[in-house]
Amino acid sequence: MSGLGGGAAFERLGPDRWHFQHGPIDLIVDVEGDPEAQARAIAGCWDEFQGVLPGLVQELPSLRRAVDHGTTLRGPVARRMLRACRAFADERFITSMAAVAGAVADHLITGFDQPGIQRACINNGGDIAVYLAAGASFRVGICSHPERTDTTQSTGVPLSGAFTLDQHAAIRGIATSGWRGRSFSLGIADSVTVLAADAATADAAATLIGNAVNCLHPAIVRAPADQLKDDTDLGSRMVTVDVPPLPMSAVDSALLAGRVETGLWRARGLIFAAAITLQGRMEVVMPVSRPALFDMAAA
Amino acid sequence: MNEHSTGHTRVDHVVEDMDPTLSLTSGPTVLQSASPTRSMANKIRCDACPVLCNISEGRTGACDRWGNVNGLLTRVDPMILSRHPLPDDKAALFLTGVGSGTTYPDYKPAPFIVSSRHDEVDIVTVVTEGIFSYCSFKLKIDTDRFLGPEQANIRFNGELVGHVTTAEYGSQMLSIGGVHHLTGGGKKEGRATCELMAALGNKQAVDLSIDGGSTLVVQSGAPPIVNGERETRMRVGCGSATIGMFAKQWLGLLDEVVVVDDHITGVLTEHQAGKYLDIRPSGIELRGRRSTPGRYFKVANPGTGWGGTDIQDPTSIIAGFDAKVSWPGLRLLMVSTTGEHSAYFVLDEHLVPQPAAMPVEVRQAVDLIAENCEPALTTVLFVGGAGGSLRAGATRSPVRLTQAIKDSRVNVTCGGAPVYVWPGGGITVMVDVALMPDRSFGTVPTPAVVAPIEFTMRLSEYQALGGYMESVQSLQDVMDRHRSRIVSIDTANPWPLRHKALLE
Fold this sequence. Notes:
A: alpha+beta, T-fold, three-stranded antiparallel β-sheet
């Protein structure tokens, strides 16, 4: 890179929490372990992070094209994106950008696999990569209505569901997609949360399932992506701009479509589970063998 | 890419080993917000980050932080506006530099040059965030505990970040940061210093250790924690000073008072104040080393007992009473310099102090000592030199800005808080971070500290200084075009638009 553009920013938010930001990338990095190992790991992560955006930018035109078998990419993050998206590319339109957030988190989480680190997680705008040392676990909650948080109560955010990640499950990636998010969605889901072996795969799958949660209802406002944002990888595809309250039948059919899409990727072994929320309803698709994966809180 | 083809200046650090790119932080954001290249019809190219988005009018870039507003690259995430405590004031809003961004190295006008009217005077405020390499924090730690020898190194996460400077009355001063730690040492030292400085400026608690001394937890406006012990009260003075202050009020109530203090323990009847009041000698003999009459050093070791010593039983510092001078029934008060510890004794027929019920009047005298102690705090002052290229964002003739500030024709504030401008050359300002909005400070990986700074003056003054008159915009325009967040300004602060520079 030449000296063009701004550099990355580093901020410590708490004893075990940092914020890294560079251009459109915002990471919350949580690392727990002995202080020396923690300091060493976070310094290494920061060094690596500063090269991520410049690396991606070099291959941006290729990353924005639909993935096919001829696609080749060079950078470590770009290759993670491609690897994750290829699994879906035979059956769906997908560009490597569908996995960018998850791939960045996956790439950086590898640096925390070292002695003295108990657990770590990198949250890249809702796409989360996790590292767990032996015996460690993470409790993860899903909040589909953050606006309902009552800040006057100490009860915290209202959770629609929660689950525990530990060494018994091979889940190290959690991704959430939805039409309100920063990336465009072709669908109408308020949120689609996917659990997979890595964050890049979860990210790509959440995007596709989010696109599938859809129905034809005239009240849904859509617009061509390239009329909303420059340089979008979605071209003139119609993306969701607004979803008014829908009749129950429309919600049912959208959720069913999402369930079918989730089932497809589960059958291929690409993802473990998904939770879809839409207008106050929640649809959970998970392995029968692990019924406790999501323990549902009362809505 | 040819840097000059776009016609605006790239970041150009002078120090060779500095990071060549300029960056933004999540708190205050630092960015070039020059008028960007018009790469295509109605599109502009954003150079805020390496993505280099081409943004059409009315849209935002990939980050959603910067957008094309009427053909201008515009920051769309919030800035901080201060609200005057009196809501009916016409000049009730003041745009601070927090989150304003900067145009380092300031060949271009500062991010915001805002005009307003106050008391029928046209006023201009140049609002920016300065990037400070030449800056430090001065900490005043209200404690009598030993923090470390003067000149000792201070460490944060093991890295050298400052030094112990002078002891002041009841307080120890520390110097944190500075250009030699930021850019003169190793990369790790610079980063640790930068992280620490932003945390201190943002009123967060930080852990420090002093070579050959204590460990500390310090936070602006909070009691210091020394070696795990939280300070509560600042002593009213040393033992000797306490005698001097309160001797008169003990007259007639007590025959002898010993003020126990780790530094100087005072004895009323031997003390100058006791002599002055003609108090009869008591014959008390203290341990420790007598300095001048009524003043004793080292009556015990430092500790967390009475008056910062290690003693639990105050009579342990009494060697005895001289039988030729003393008398049975002598009334003795022993008290610490904060009034936290006190005990009342009466001498028996063998001249041995026996604990006795404390008379109400004596209790009131002890309470008076306690009442006169102030809460122990850490205060954090930011010191920064704004005399460099930052001035060029305000005016075409930087030295005129310096002169106008020295002549009090320009009011300088940091995040709306009043600053002390040091006399002499340059614009070296000092400001209490407690008066600034929360999260006012940021960092750039140079490493350097980012702090808001505003210059407010009459419009005519700004014109005379060679100001960028074409860049002056109304506060309403700024608010219309930029997202902002309104905070109530610290009510103890003078309102920046009411400075004498503007009212004469």
